[in-house]
Amino acid sequence: MVIFNVLLLLLCGLILYVFFLKRQIKLLAKQVNTMSADSKKGSRFFVDFREKNLIALVDELNQMVNTYESEKVQVKQAEENLQLSITGLSHDLRTPLTAIDGYVQLLKLTDDPLKKKQYLDVIELSVSKLLEMTNQFYDLTRIDLNQKGFDLVKLSLNDTIQDNFLNFFDSFEKSGLTIKFPENGESIHVLADKVLLNRVIQNIIQNILRYARGKVEIEYAKQSNFGVVTFINDIKPGSKISIEKVFDRFYTESKTRTNTESSGLGLYISKRLIENMNGNMDAKLVQQQFSIEIKLPFI
Questions:
Q1: Same domain, residue pair 212 and 291
Q2: Of the four, 35, 120, 136, 162, which is 20 to 30 A from 272 by CA?
Q3: Could you tell me the pLDDT band of residue 74, with boundaries at 50, 70 and 90?
Q4: Keyword Membrane on this protein (predicted)?
Q5: In which region does residue 126 sit, left (phi positive, over 0), alpha (psi from -120 to 50) or beta (all else)?
Q6: In terms of domains, do 80 and 105 share one?
């Protein structure tokens, strides 16, 4: 009799267990059906019946929801950034396009060789600016959509920077800038993408040519597991740089959108590229001395 009562209790307990389990599974299935893509952010699955396997299932479902919401936020941010990029660049592209159109019309109206050369020089400069902007836009969209691939290899930071600066020797000379490299500096090797690191350095050089005066100093150092390079220069009189905004998208020293020298994307893109190569890029402004520091993994 005792055994019978025990078995009866176990059977009743099993029936209740199965009942509550099936009930909870039905409620969970209803939650799955009602939780659409437009559900309020933060919505999660839950159960009242505390069964180990069921709780594990709910935890997995909630983890999937977390991943989905995170990806949804990233996609939305990428779309907003892309729209902002299109709007900003569309505005910036008008200036060189208008210049090209205007000077082409002037070319048609003159037979003076000197004026023709002058107009062609302006057109050539505007075309170069258009190419620079379209390259930046291409980089920007690939970064925002996480489509830019990286080929990280061992590189000499010193040689890479020196080669790029020497390529701009005539431009520095024309701008009255003196470049000071370290004397007998130790060679620093870092892990980076050669093409993209060159792009970053060239963006920095363009920034130097626009805003620096006098002398540009380049310093190298090792900090923990990073190779570090710092570019230091005085800025032109009257320049008003907001140091907290220099890496913002479309930031230029000019507060208007009529700055024909810069789209305001170079440093923003450079910082993103360096971060995607597991490094860091920072800027400082002390009185009239501006500096940019790049850190990349040391090898």
A1: yes
A2: 162
A3: confident
A4: yes
A5: alpha
A6: yes
